[in-house]
Write a structure and sequence with these properties.
Helix content is about 45%, strand content about 5%. It has about 450 residues and is mainly alpha-helical. The strands form two sheets. A four-stranded parallel β-sheet has the order 2-1-3-4. The longest helix is centred in the N-terminal third of the chain and has 16 residues.
Length: about 450
């Protein structure tokens, strides 16, 4: 069976294991599915993230274990890739939000996010890629090539209810929430970032699509903090040989989550080409959006781009990870002042939790004198990229947010700061909680002495 992702890492899975139940077809992809050992941790509702869809339905059919069972049945019944047209898979995968929690919290480390990407790619091969999927997945190209047109379209849609209803009917984009709007200007680095190497050396700031086009103030704040800390900051740019040298780099995450694997592979190749010299020089590369940076560090392996992916992964850090590492290992000390704010609420992005980044988030926030905060014990915020924008999933999205996140936000005092590093998370909190949430980089920038 032809697969769109590289599943060779699972080549030896199931060897000598009588209980894995590897399907008859599907090769190494089938082995990735079969790692589930039915611990049913995905059907718990205590601490943790997994499994958001089970938490809101209480129905085993919407758990990781049930999804594995559906894939096993489809792969056993289907002689070829037509197995992915099995309606049982559509039903099982309908509420999966690609939160990555099962890879962390499942004892068998089922990577349902990648399993879903392959499933979507196979389904697109059979049925074609729907227009809505092309639009949501294609945000990096739409913002890079048609920014002003997209900005105008979103503004009109958000301000005229009939247009929002039309988009819901025609595209399936919910009219129940606004779309994130683009400011007049995207991120543009200021002159000091390109100056001589700082006392602490050079770093590269990878400004993702969302920070570049939707929230440039986050990238500006991160740049200011890094400069204040003594680093020379270079903004990541496409390689001189890139076919689109003026379009910002993208991790390919939106393409992966929508099953547009070849598009994701194209973006990943652009990233690898751009970072050739940085890989050789071992220059730290810092990202701001959890899903983007951690996709480069984890899911790039699945695109079959060679050993350089591993070398790049060693140099990739989320903003807070880098600061915490430099503080612990290389004596970094930021000069910060008190903010005189009430105790804050911190919401962790699913990928921050799945990759153990929340410890660094807590540590960096603790550097601000007198600053106190509580981390909300929450599952997925429910926005999950485009999931919460899809008309058929809007209610499920809000139910996920209402499990604990939005009640905690609404119960807090009106002047309570809310911190969330995920772009989608901030959108969900503002929509459902009625108040803005801020990236950690903005909070640190405000605290610079």
């Amino acid at each position: 069976m032809k697969t769109f992702l590289d599943w060779s890492a699972y080549d030896t899975y199931g060897v000598g294991d009588a209980y894995s139940g590897i399907p008859a077809t599907g090769g190494n992809y089938a082995k990735a599915v079969a790692v589930c050992m039915h611990s049913r941790d995905c059907q718990k509702t205590g601490k943790g993230v997994m499994c958001p869809s089970y938490r809101i339905t209480g129905d085993r059919a919407h758990s990781t274990e049930a999804r594995v069972a559906a894939f096993k049945a489809a792969l056993n019944d289907g002689a070829d890739a037509r197995a992915f047209a099995d309606p049982r898979l559509d039903e099982a995968m309908d509420l999966c939000v690609s939160c990555k929690a099962c890879k962390k919290e499942c004892p068998s480390a089922v990577d349902m996010t990648l399993i879903k990407t392959e499933y979507l790619a196979q389904r697109h091969e059979i049925r074609g890629v729907p227009l809505r999927t092309r639009l949501f997945g294609g945000v990096p190209e739409l913002t890079g090539r048609h920014r002003e047109l997209l900005r105008l379209a979103i503004r009109l849609r958000n301000r005229f209810r009939p247009l929002a209803k039309f988009a819901e009917t025609w595209l399936g984009v919910t009219a129940s929430r606004p779309l994130p709007e683009l400011p007049k200007k995207p991120f543009a680095p200021t002159a000091p970032t390109t100056g001589a190497t700082g006392a602490r050396g050079e770093v590269i700031l990878f400004v993702d699509t969302f920070c570049h086009h939707f929230e440039p103030d986050v990238a500006e704040a991160a740049t200011e903090v890094l400069l204040h800390a003594g680093y020379s900051v270079r903004i990541a740019k496409p390689a001189p040989t890139d076919a689109e040298p003026d379009r910002p780099l993208c991790c390919g995450r939106t393409y992966l989550t929508t099953g547009m694997v070849e598009k994701a592979r194209g973006e990943a190749k652009r990233v690898l080409a751009a970072f050739q010299d940085a890989i050789a020089a071992r220059t730290p590369i810092i990202g701001l959006e959890p899903s983007c940076l951690l996709s480069l560090r984890d899911e790039l392996y699945s695109l079959g781009l060679g050993p350089q992916v591993g070398e790049l992964g060693k140099q990739l850090y989320l903003f807070e990870e880098f600061l915490a590492r430099e503080h612990q290992n290389k004596g970094l000390r930021l000069t910060l002042k008190p903010l005189n704010l009430p105790k804050a609420l911190v919401h962790g992005h699913c990928h921050q939790k799945a990759f153990g980044v929340m410890k660094a988030t807590r540590r960096v926030l603790s550097w601000i004198p007198g600053f106190s905060f509580d981390v909300v014990e929450s599952s997925c915020c429910g926005m999950a990229g485009s999931f919460g924008l899809e008309a058929e999933h809007y209610d499920a999205s809000m139910q996920m947010a209402e499990l604990s996140l939005l009640p905690a936000v609404r119960a807090a005092a009106p002047d309570t700061p809310v911190i969330a590093n995920g772009f989608s998370c901030r959108h969900q909190i503002e929509h459902g909680g009625g108040r803005p949430a801020r990236h950690l980089a903005l909070v640190l920038r405000d605290a610079l002495a």
